[in-house]
């Protein structure tokens, strides 16, 4: 059975980090499993962790009572769930639900923030990686907003 | 005196349409239909995947439509009804006659990917022009490495060829990813822009050939995503769409810098296309 360190080392987000850094981060982690349709996080709840997805798929949703939940985006293996833990007020912006059975490593946010505060080099590295993640998602969201297929023709 | 049998003559000049009859018609989406066209006159030369034909709605006009497949001499075209000509073509019923000129332009040339991993990325109606690649890929699977099909659409209801996508998904050696830009919670598939699927494709990027088709802006960001992943730029091929009129490189309506897209394209390698797509129109 793989350790938390092994699972993090296998994940693209942590690619290239030294073994000792991975082991340091793994100290904040635990293995988790979500059943299909299980709620993972809820809008406005405290953002006290994030998830390194290993298998399965998670839908980010906004609940619009007249229409029901609207899926904004789905994320899967090799991706991360949750960035609101990075900055105050540390609250989730959306809901998230497992679309299918999903396995992940959950990393405790307060634990990780403490380690980043204690080691600014680690903190800078983590924030650079998360900045890249946020940039990629912002870019993808902008493309979604363009309604790419609205007027195409063969 | 016996009248000459004009239908038995050789292939007509490129500006002369040949008569085809609608053998069957399938309503794919509210505004999109697929027609199977069988020759009345001598059949046109066999097209390559990626090429296009000019389809005539007699008395109305003609439009360039990419080939979505063949069945012997039968041509299969998928048409979105967006204007007068395509509305008339899309309204054609079995037995109706349609004029066809072609085939024109360059093809995908799947052979260039033999021995390599293959990514086919399609968005919206762009799935139609790459459909022949996918059917070839499935039929000749052992000639290629890993194969990924990345499909994007606006909503689940806008997905083209749903039955065929299900069939492609049944092949264990073909990775098929489908994503839509927006969906209700009842949709069990992916939501997000199609370019995000590139990161999931199980490929060796340096040994991958990619075929990309869809709206121009999607192809631009799709090609960039593939190249960022490590796919060589000269192994990324896109299919351009321009205002084709003559289809033989004379009229200039489809001119893009020094290229006549109807003749030099529509399929082109990304290094040729990239600088042209950055030219801003005034």
Description:
- The complex is a heterodimer of chains A (154) and B (282).
- By secondary structure, chain A is of the alpha+beta class.
- Chain A has a single domain (28-149), classed as Jelly Rolls.
- Chain A is 33% helix and 29% strand.
- Chain A contains four helices and eight strands; from the N terminus they run ααββββββββαα.
- Chain A has helices at 4-10, 19-26, 109-118, 120-145, and strands at residues 29-34, 39-41, 49-55, 58-64, 68-75, 80-81, 95-98, 102-108.
- In chain A, the strands form two sheets. Chain A has a four-stranded antiparallel sheet.
- In chain A, helix 1 packs across helix 2 and helix 3 (109-118) packs across helix 4 (120-145).
- Chain A is globular, with a radius of gyration of 17 Å.
- The N and C termini of chain A lie far apart (51 Å).
- In chain A, 31% of the residues are buried.
- Chain B has 282 residues and is an alpha/beta fold.
- Chain B has two domains: 18-104, Translation factors (Elongation Factor Tu (Ef-tu), domain 3); 110-277, Rossmann fold (3-Layer(aba) Sandwich), CATH 3.40.50.
- In chain B, 19% of the residues lie in helices and 33% in strands.
- In chain B, the strands form three sheets. Chain B has a seven-stranded mixed sheet with strand order 11-9-8-7-12-13-16, sandwiched between helices. A six-stranded antiparallel β-barrel of chain B has the order 1-2-5-4-3-6. In chain B, strands 14-15 form a two-stranded antiparallel sheet.
- Chain B is globular.
- The model of chain B has no long low-confidence stretch (mean pLDDT 91).
- The A-B interface holds A 12, 57, 59, 61, 67-78, 97, 99-100, 140-141, 143-144, 146-154 and B 65-66, 68, 77-80, 82, 86, 123-126, 128-129, 152-154, 158, 179, 181-185, 187-196, 199-200, 214-215, 217-218, 221, 241.
- Strand 5 (68-75) of chain A pairs antiparallel with strand 10 (183-184) of chain B.
């Amino acid at each position: 059975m793989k350790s938390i360190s092994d699972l993090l080392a296998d994940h693209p987000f942590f690619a290239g980090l030294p073994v000792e850094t991975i082991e340091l981060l793994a100290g904040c982690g635990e293995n988790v499993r979500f059943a299909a349709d299980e709620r993972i996080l809820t809008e406005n709840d405290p953002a006290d962790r994030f998830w390194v997805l290993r298998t399965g798929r998670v839908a980010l949703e906004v609940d619009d009572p007249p229409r029901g939940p609207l899926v904004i985006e789905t994320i899967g293996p090799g991706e991360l769930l949750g960035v609101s833990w990075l900055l105050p007020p540390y609250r989730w912006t959306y809901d998230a639900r497992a679309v299918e059975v999903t396995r992940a490593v959950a990393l405790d946010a307060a634990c990780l923030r403490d380690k980043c505060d204690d080691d600014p080099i680690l903190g800078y590295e983590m924030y650079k990686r998360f900045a890249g993640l946020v940039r990629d998602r912002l870019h993808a969201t902008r493309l979604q907003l363009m309604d790419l297929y609205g007027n195409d023709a063969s | 005196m016996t009248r000459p049998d004009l239908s038995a003559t050789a292939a007509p000049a490129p500006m002369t349409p040949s008569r085809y009859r609608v053998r069957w018609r399938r309503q794919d989406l509210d505004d999109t239909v697929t027609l199977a066209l069988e020759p009345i006159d001598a059949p046109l030369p066999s097209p390559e995947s990626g090429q296009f034909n000019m389809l005539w709605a007699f008395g109305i006009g003609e439009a360039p439509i990419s080939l979505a497949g063949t069945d012997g001499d039968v041509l299969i075209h998928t048409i979105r009804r967006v204007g007068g000509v395509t509305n008339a073509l899309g309204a054609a019923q079995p037995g109706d006659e349609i004029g066809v000129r072609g085939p024109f332009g360059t093809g995908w040339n799947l052979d260039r990917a033999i021995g390599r991993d293959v990514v086919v990325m399609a968005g919206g109606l762009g799935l139609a022009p790459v459909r022949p690649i996918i059917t070839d890929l499935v039929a000749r699977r052992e000639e290629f490495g890993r194969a990924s099909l990345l499909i994007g659409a606006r909503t689940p209801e806008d997905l083209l060829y749903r039955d065929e996508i299900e069939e492609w998904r049944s092949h264990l050696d073909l990775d098929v990813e489908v994503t839509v830009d927006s969906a209700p919670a009842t949709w069990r598939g992916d939501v997000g822009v199609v370019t995000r699927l590139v990161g999931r494709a199980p490929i060796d990027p340096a040994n991958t050939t990619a075929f990309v088709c869809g709206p121009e802006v999607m192809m631009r960001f799709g090609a960039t995503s593939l190249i960022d992943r490590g796919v060589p730029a000269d192994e990324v091929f896109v299919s351009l769409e321009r205002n084709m009129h003559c289809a033989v490189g004379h009229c200039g309506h489809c001119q893009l810098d020094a290229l006549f897209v109807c003749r030099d394209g529509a399929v082109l390698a990304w290094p040729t296309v990239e600088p042209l797509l950055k030219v801003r129109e005034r």
